[in-house]
Specification:
Length: 376
Protein backbone atom coordinates (compact mmCIF):
# COMPACT_ATOMS: atom_id res chain seq x y z
CA UNK A 1 0.00 0.00 0.00
CA UNK A 2 1.34 3.38 -1.00
CA UNK A 3 0.05 6.76 0.16
CA UNK A 4 0.46 10.36 -0.97
CA UNK A 5 -0.69 13.62 0.52
CA UNK A 6 -3.63 15.28 -1.19
CA UNK A 7 -2.64 17.93 -3.72
CA UNK A 8 -5.79 19.86 -2.78
CA UNK A 9 -4.86 20.54 0.81
CA UNK A 10 -4.74 23.64 3.00
CA UNK A 11 -3.51 23.81 6.60
CA UNK A 12 -4.21 26.73 8.93
CA UNK A 13 -4.61 27.78 12.54
CA UNK A 14 -8.18 28.33 13.74
CA UNK A 15 -9.18 29.16 17.31
CA UNK A 16 -5.85 27.91 18.63
CA UNK A 17 -5.91 24.60 16.74
CA UNK A 18 -3.92 23.39 13.77
CA UNK A 19 -6.40 22.35 11.08
CA UNK A 20 -5.73 20.09 8.12
CA UNK A 21 -8.35 20.80 5.44
CA UNK A 22 -8.32 18.66 2.28
CA UNK A 23 -10.81 19.71 -0.37
CA UNK A 24 -13.25 18.79 -1.73
CA UNK A 25 -13.22 15.16 -0.63
CA UNK A 26 -11.90 15.49 2.93
CA UNK A 27 -12.94 16.79 6.31
CA UNK A 28 -11.30 19.73 8.13
CA UNK A 29 -9.64 18.08 11.13
CA UNK A 30 -7.80 19.59 14.08
CA UNK A 31 -4.53 17.73 14.63
CA UNK A 32 -1.20 18.17 16.35
CA UNK A 33 1.15 20.32 14.20
CA UNK A 34 3.39 17.28 13.80
CA UNK A 35 0.84 16.21 11.16
CA UNK A 36 2.42 18.72 8.76
CA UNK A 37 5.76 16.94 9.08
CA UNK A 38 4.14 13.58 8.46
CA UNK A 39 2.42 14.96 5.37
CA UNK A 40 5.74 16.22 4.03
CA UNK A 41 7.06 12.66 4.11
CA UNK A 42 4.31 11.67 1.65
CA UNK A 43 5.02 14.29 -1.01
CA UNK A 44 5.16 11.43 -3.53
CA UNK A 45 3.70 7.94 -3.44
CA UNK A 46 5.39 6.13 -0.51
CA UNK A 47 4.77 3.17 1.73
CA UNK A 48 4.30 3.88 5.44
CA UNK A 49 7.67 2.24 6.04
CA UNK A 50 9.47 4.48 3.53
CA UNK A 51 7.89 7.60 5.00
CA UNK A 52 8.68 6.56 8.56
CA UNK A 53 12.32 6.26 7.59
CA UNK A 54 12.50 10.03 7.29
CA UNK A 55 10.70 10.56 10.58
CA UNK A 56 13.00 8.67 12.92
CA UNK A 57 12.97 11.51 15.44
CA UNK A 58 9.28 10.72 16.02
CA UNK A 59 8.11 7.64 17.85
CA UNK A 60 6.53 4.90 15.74
CA UNK A 61 3.29 5.28 17.68
CA UNK A 62 3.18 9.00 16.91
CA UNK A 63 3.75 8.41 13.20
CA UNK A 64 1.18 5.62 13.03
CA UNK A 65 -1.41 7.67 14.91
CA UNK A 66 -0.82 10.69 12.68
CA UNK A 67 -1.06 8.63 9.47
CA UNK A 68 -4.33 7.07 10.61
CA UNK A 69 -5.83 10.49 11.44
CA UNK A 70 -4.67 11.95 8.13
CA UNK A 71 -6.12 9.04 6.16
CA UNK A 72 -9.45 9.40 7.97
CA UNK A 73 -9.47 13.13 7.18
CA UNK A 74 -8.74 12.51 3.50
CA UNK A 75 -5.36 14.25 3.63
CA UNK A 76 -3.47 11.02 2.86
CA UNK A 77 -4.79 9.12 -0.15
CA UNK A 78 -4.48 5.50 -1.23
CA UNK A 79 -2.79 4.93 -4.57
CA UNK A 80 -5.29 3.89 -7.23
CA UNK A 81 -8.32 4.94 -5.21
CA UNK A 82 -11.19 7.08 -6.44
CA UNK A 83 -10.27 9.88 -4.03
CA UNK A 84 -6.74 9.97 -5.44
CA UNK A 85 -8.04 10.04 -9.02
CA UNK A 86 -10.37 12.95 -8.27
CA UNK A 87 -7.65 14.76 -6.32
CA UNK A 88 -5.36 14.64 -9.36
CA UNK A 89 -8.17 15.75 -11.67
CA UNK A 90 -9.04 18.79 -9.54
CA UNK A 91 -5.38 19.71 -9.01
CA UNK A 92 -4.91 19.67 -12.77
CA UNK A 93 -8.05 21.65 -13.60
CA UNK A 94 -7.39 24.34 -10.96
CA UNK A 95 -3.60 24.27 -11.28
CA UNK A 96 -3.03 27.90 -12.31
CA UNK A 97 -5.36 29.15 -9.58
CA UNK A 98 -4.46 26.77 -6.76
CA UNK A 99 -4.40 26.76 -3.84
CA UNK A 100 -6.33 29.96 -3.11
CA UNK A 101 -9.16 29.71 -5.66
CA UNK A 102 -9.78 25.98 -5.40
CA UNK A 103 -9.78 26.07 -1.61
CA UNK A 104 -12.28 28.93 -1.46
CA UNK A 105 -14.55 27.29 -4.03
CA UNK A 106 -14.68 23.86 -2.44
CA UNK A 107 -14.52 25.00 1.18
CA UNK A 108 -17.73 26.97 0.57
CA UNK A 109 -19.48 24.30 -1.53
CA UNK A 110 -22.42 22.16 -0.39
CA UNK A 111 -22.66 24.07 2.89
CA UNK A 112 -26.45 23.85 2.94
CA UNK A 113 -26.42 20.06 2.84
CA UNK A 114 -24.65 20.07 6.21
CA UNK A 115 -26.31 23.16 7.68
CA UNK A 116 -28.81 22.73 10.52
CA UNK A 117 -32.40 23.73 9.90
CA UNK A 118 -32.82 27.50 9.86
CA UNK A 119 -29.38 28.30 8.46
CA UNK A 120 -30.53 28.54 4.85
CA UNK A 121 -30.59 32.18 3.71
CA UNK A 122 -34.18 31.80 2.51
CA UNK A 123 -35.41 30.13 5.71
CA UNK A 124 -37.42 32.47 7.97
CA UNK A 125 -35.78 30.77 10.94
CA UNK A 126 -32.48 32.16 9.77
CA UNK A 127 -33.98 35.66 9.86
CA UNK A 128 -34.98 35.17 13.48
CA UNK A 129 -31.35 34.58 14.41
CA UNK A 130 -30.51 38.13 13.27
CA UNK A 131 -31.92 39.49 16.51
CA UNK A 132 -28.93 38.08 18.41
CA UNK A 133 -26.30 39.72 16.23
CA UNK A 134 -26.84 43.28 17.42
CA UNK A 135 -28.08 46.34 15.55
CA UNK A 136 -28.01 46.52 11.79
CA UNK A 137 -25.07 48.42 10.27
CA UNK A 138 -25.83 51.88 8.89
CA UNK A 139 -28.10 51.68 5.89
CA UNK A 140 -25.94 54.12 3.91
CA UNK A 141 -22.24 54.88 4.13
CA UNK A 142 -21.43 58.53 4.68
CA UNK A 143 -18.41 60.71 5.35
CA UNK A 144 -19.89 63.59 7.36
CA UNK A 145 -16.63 65.56 7.53
CA UNK A 146 -16.01 65.41 3.79
CA UNK A 147 -17.11 68.30 1.54
CA UNK A 148 -20.29 67.21 -0.23
CA UNK A 149 -21.41 68.17 -3.71
CA UNK A 150 -25.08 67.49 -4.37
CA UNK A 151 -25.59 66.23 -7.90
CA UNK A 152 -28.29 67.29 -10.38
CA UNK A 153 -31.52 65.30 -10.11
CA UNK A 154 -32.59 65.58 -13.74
CA UNK A 155 -34.23 62.43 -15.16
CA UNK A 156 -31.81 60.20 -17.01
CA UNK A 157 -32.15 60.03 -20.79
CA UNK A 158 -32.48 56.25 -20.95
CA UNK A 159 -34.79 55.96 -23.93
CA UNK A 160 -32.53 53.89 -26.18
CA UNK A 161 -34.35 50.65 -27.09
CA UNK A 162 -33.36 47.77 -24.87
CA UNK A 163 -32.23 45.55 -27.72
CA UNK A 164 -29.98 48.32 -28.99
CA UNK A 165 -28.46 48.84 -25.54
CA UNK A 166 -27.92 45.13 -25.07
CA UNK A 167 -26.19 44.53 -28.40
CA UNK A 168 -24.30 47.84 -28.50
CA UNK A 169 -22.72 47.18 -25.11
CA UNK A 170 -19.10 46.22 -25.26
CA UNK A 171 -15.99 46.83 -23.21
CA UNK A 172 -14.22 49.97 -24.40
CA UNK A 173 -10.51 50.62 -24.12
CA UNK A 174 -10.36 53.75 -26.30
CA UNK A 175 -11.87 57.12 -25.45
CA UNK A 176 -11.89 60.54 -27.09
CA UNK A 177 -10.64 62.41 -24.05
CA UNK A 178 -13.62 64.78 -24.12
CA UNK A 179 -15.04 65.57 -20.67
CA UNK A 180 -18.24 63.92 -19.51
CA UNK A 181 -21.08 66.22 -18.42
CA UNK A 182 -21.81 66.16 -14.70
CA UNK A 183 -25.49 65.60 -15.52
CA UNK A 184 -24.53 62.38 -17.32
CA UNK A 185 -22.40 61.14 -14.42
CA UNK A 186 -25.19 62.02 -11.98
CA UNK A 187 -27.77 60.12 -14.03
CA UNK A 188 -25.48 57.08 -14.24
CA UNK A 189 -24.77 56.99 -10.49
CA UNK A 190 -28.43 57.45 -9.57
CA UNK A 191 -29.64 54.73 -11.94
CA UNK A 192 -27.03 52.17 -10.88
CA UNK A 193 -26.31 52.89 -7.22
CA UNK A 194 -29.19 54.98 -5.92
CA UNK A 195 -32.15 53.62 -3.95
CA UNK A 196 -35.27 52.77 -5.92
CA UNK A 197 -37.56 52.14 -2.95
CA UNK A 198 -37.43 51.03 0.67
CA UNK A 199 -38.68 47.82 2.30
CA UNK A 200 -39.38 46.73 5.88
CA UNK A 201 -37.11 43.85 6.92
CA UNK A 202 -38.74 43.45 10.36
CA UNK A 203 -35.81 45.06 12.17
CA UNK A 204 -35.77 48.30 10.22
CA UNK A 205 -35.63 49.48 6.63
CA UNK A 206 -33.63 48.15 3.71
CA UNK A 207 -33.63 49.47 0.16
CA UNK A 208 -33.64 48.17 -3.37
CA UNK A 209 -31.40 49.10 -6.28
CA UNK A 210 -31.85 48.35 -9.97
CA UNK A 211 -29.45 45.37 -9.60
CA UNK A 212 -30.13 42.21 -7.60
CA UNK A 213 -28.26 42.16 -4.29
CA UNK A 214 -28.17 39.21 -1.87
CA UNK A 215 -30.70 39.68 0.92
CA UNK A 216 -31.03 43.38 -0.03
CA UNK A 217 -27.98 44.01 2.14
CA UNK A 218 -26.61 46.56 -0.38
CA UNK A 219 -23.11 45.92 0.93
CA UNK A 220 -21.44 47.38 -2.17
CA UNK A 221 -20.49 51.07 -2.00
CA UNK A 222 -19.38 53.17 -4.98
CA UNK A 223 -16.24 55.34 -4.93
CA UNK A 224 -15.69 57.66 -7.89
CA UNK A 225 -12.31 58.69 -9.27
CA UNK A 226 -12.81 61.79 -11.43
CA UNK A 227 -10.33 62.55 -14.20
CA UNK A 228 -12.39 64.70 -16.57
CA UNK A 229 -15.97 65.51 -15.60
CA UNK A 230 -17.31 69.02 -16.27
CA UNK A 231 -17.66 71.01 -13.08
CA UNK A 232 -15.89 68.48 -10.83
CA UNK A 233 -12.31 68.86 -9.63
CA UNK A 234 -10.20 65.76 -10.22
CA UNK A 235 -10.03 63.55 -7.15
CA UNK A 236 -11.65 60.69 -5.34
CA UNK A 237 -15.21 60.83 -4.06
CA UNK A 238 -17.72 58.59 -2.32
CA UNK A 239 -21.17 58.47 -3.86
CA UNK A 240 -23.81 59.03 -1.18
CA UNK A 241 -26.97 57.49 -2.61
CA UNK A 242 -29.18 58.82 0.17
CA UNK A 243 -28.44 62.46 -0.67
CA UNK A 244 -27.43 61.82 -4.30
CA UNK A 245 -24.14 63.56 -3.77
CA UNK A 246 -20.40 63.13 -4.02
CA UNK A 247 -18.28 63.39 -0.88
CA UNK A 248 -14.74 64.56 -1.63
CA UNK A 249 -12.24 62.21 0.03
CA UNK A 250 -9.01 63.41 -1.57
CA UNK A 251 -8.08 65.95 -4.21
CA UNK A 252 -6.14 65.23 -7.37
CA UNK A 253 -6.17 62.25 -9.70
CA UNK A 254 -4.10 61.83 -12.85
CA UNK A 255 -4.06 59.45 -15.83
CA UNK A 256 -0.66 58.16 -14.72
CA UNK A 257 -2.07 57.27 -11.31
CA UNK A 258 -5.06 55.57 -12.93
CA UNK A 259 -2.71 53.39 -14.95
CA UNK A 260 -0.75 52.51 -11.82
CA UNK A 261 -3.91 51.63 -9.85
CA UNK A 262 -5.14 49.44 -12.71
CA UNK A 263 -1.99 47.28 -12.68
CA UNK A 264 -0.25 49.31 -15.41
CA UNK A 265 -2.91 48.84 -18.09
CA UNK A 266 -2.35 51.65 -20.65
CA UNK A 267 -6.04 52.10 -21.47
CA UNK A 268 -6.70 53.27 -17.90
CA UNK A 269 -5.20 56.67 -18.77
CA UNK A 270 -8.11 57.48 -21.09
CA UNK A 271 -11.52 57.18 -19.32
CA UNK A 272 -13.17 60.29 -17.91
CA UNK A 273 -13.92 58.66 -14.55
CA UNK A 274 -13.65 55.42 -12.58
CA UNK A 275 -16.01 53.75 -10.11
CA UNK A 276 -14.58 51.38 -7.50
CA UNK A 277 -17.05 48.87 -6.08
CA UNK A 278 -16.13 48.20 -2.45
CA UNK A 279 -17.83 45.79 -0.08
CA UNK A 280 -18.77 46.82 3.42
CA UNK A 281 -18.61 43.28 4.81
CA UNK A 282 -20.52 43.84 8.05
CA UNK A 283 -23.73 44.49 6.12
CA UNK A 284 -23.61 41.00 4.65
CA UNK A 285 -22.06 39.26 7.65
CA UNK A 286 -24.69 40.41 10.13
CA UNK A 287 -27.28 38.33 8.29
CA UNK A 288 -25.17 35.60 6.69
CA UNK A 289 -22.35 34.57 9.08
CA UNK A 290 -21.01 31.97 6.65
CA UNK A 291 -17.94 32.31 4.41
CA UNK A 292 -20.07 31.37 1.40
CA UNK A 293 -21.62 34.84 1.66
CA UNK A 294 -18.38 36.25 0.26
CA UNK A 295 -19.34 34.54 -3.01
CA UNK A 296 -22.53 36.60 -2.92
CA UNK A 297 -20.53 39.81 -2.46
CA UNK A 298 -18.59 39.00 -5.63
CA UNK A 299 -21.80 38.18 -7.49
CA UNK A 300 -23.37 41.43 -6.29
CA UNK A 301 -20.40 43.39 -7.62
CA UNK A 302 -20.88 41.65 -10.96
CA UNK A 303 -24.57 42.53 -11.04
CA UNK A 304 -23.75 46.19 -10.46
CA UNK A 305 -21.01 46.06 -13.06
CA UNK A 306 -23.42 44.84 -15.72
CA UNK A 307 -26.04 47.44 -14.83
CA UNK A 308 -23.30 50.08 -14.98
CA UNK A 309 -22.22 48.90 -18.43
CA UNK A 310 -25.76 48.86 -19.84
CA UNK A 311 -26.67 52.22 -18.32
CA UNK A 312 -23.46 53.84 -19.55
CA UNK A 313 -24.20 52.51 -23.04
CA UNK A 314 -27.73 53.93 -22.93
CA UNK A 315 -26.25 57.31 -21.95
CA UNK A 316 -23.89 57.28 -24.92
CA UNK A 317 -20.79 56.43 -22.89
CA UNK A 318 -18.32 53.63 -23.40
CA UNK A 319 -18.07 51.40 -20.32
CA UNK A 320 -14.97 49.54 -19.17
CA UNK A 321 -14.28 47.23 -16.28
CA UNK A 322 -11.34 45.30 -14.85
CA UNK A 323 -10.50 42.93 -12.06
CA UNK A 324 -6.80 43.70 -12.46
CA UNK A 325 -5.94 46.42 -9.96
CA UNK A 326 -3.60 47.07 -7.06
CA UNK A 327 -5.88 46.24 -4.14
CA UNK A 328 -4.02 48.02 -1.34
CA UNK A 329 -3.36 51.14 -3.39
CA UNK A 330 -6.98 51.38 -4.56
CA UNK A 331 -8.22 50.87 -1.00
CA UNK A 332 -5.93 53.63 0.29
CA UNK A 333 -7.06 56.05 -2.44
CA UNK A 334 -10.71 55.42 -1.56
CA UNK A 335 -10.10 55.77 2.17
CA UNK A 336 -10.97 52.11 2.81
CA UNK A 337 -9.47 50.22 5.74
CA UNK A 338 -9.01 47.11 3.53
CA UNK A 339 -10.28 45.04 6.46
CA UNK A 340 -14.04 45.42 6.76
CA UNK A 341 -14.27 47.61 3.65
CA UNK A 342 -12.51 46.12 0.65
CA UNK A 343 -12.38 46.90 -3.11
CA UNK A 344 -13.79 44.19 -5.39
CA UNK A 345 -14.15 45.62 -8.89
CA UNK A 346 -13.05 48.66 -10.91
CA UNK A 347 -15.36 50.21 -13.50
CA UNK A 348 -14.75 53.16 -15.81
CA UNK A 349 -16.38 55.13 -18.60
CA UNK A 350 -15.87 57.95 -21.05
CA UNK A 351 -16.85 59.02 -24.53
CA UNK A 352 -15.95 56.12 -26.85
CA UNK A 353 -13.47 56.79 -29.63
CA UNK A 354 -14.76 55.98 -33.11
CA UNK A 355 -11.20 55.10 -34.20
CA UNK A 356 -10.15 52.61 -31.53
CA UNK A 357 -6.46 51.93 -30.98
CA UNK A 358 -6.61 49.04 -28.54
CA UNK A 359 -9.79 47.25 -29.59
CA UNK A 360 -9.17 43.87 -31.25
CA UNK A 361 -10.07 43.70 -34.97
CA UNK A 362 -13.05 41.62 -36.16
CA UNK A 363 -12.25 37.93 -36.53
CA UNK A 364 -11.54 36.83 -40.08
CA UNK A 365 -10.96 33.50 -41.78
CA UNK A 366 -7.44 33.15 -40.36
CA UNK A 367 -8.68 33.62 -36.80
CA UNK A 368 -11.48 31.09 -37.21
CA UNK A 369 -9.10 28.65 -38.85
CA UNK A 370 -6.83 28.79 -35.80
CA UNK A 371 -9.69 28.34 -33.34
CA UNK A 372 -11.20 25.15 -31.98
CA UNK A 373 -14.92 25.86 -32.23
CA UNK A 374 -16.23 22.64 -30.71
CA UNK A 375 -14.94 19.92 -28.44
CA UNK A 376 -13.99 16.65 -30.18
Amino acid sequence: MRLRRSRCLTCYWHEGEFVVHPHPHGTPTALHPVAAEVLSAFEEWSTPGQAAGGLRHLTPDTVEEAMAALRDAGALLNEGGEAARRDELIAGQWGAWAPEASFFHYATSDVYDAAPSGDSPDDPAGEADDADTGPLPPLFTSHPRAPRLLLPRRPAELRMPYDQVLFDRRTHRDFTGAPVAVDTLAALLAAVFGPVDFIDCGRGALYRRTSPQGGSRQEIDAYVGVLDVEGLPSGWYHYDGLFHGLELLSEGFSPAEAVHLCADQPWAARPAFFVVLAARLERMGVKYPTPRAYRVCLLDAGHLGQTFALTATALGLGPAQTGAFRDSAVAARCGLDDAGRVPLYVLAAGHPDTAPRDAPPPAGAAAFGATTLAAP
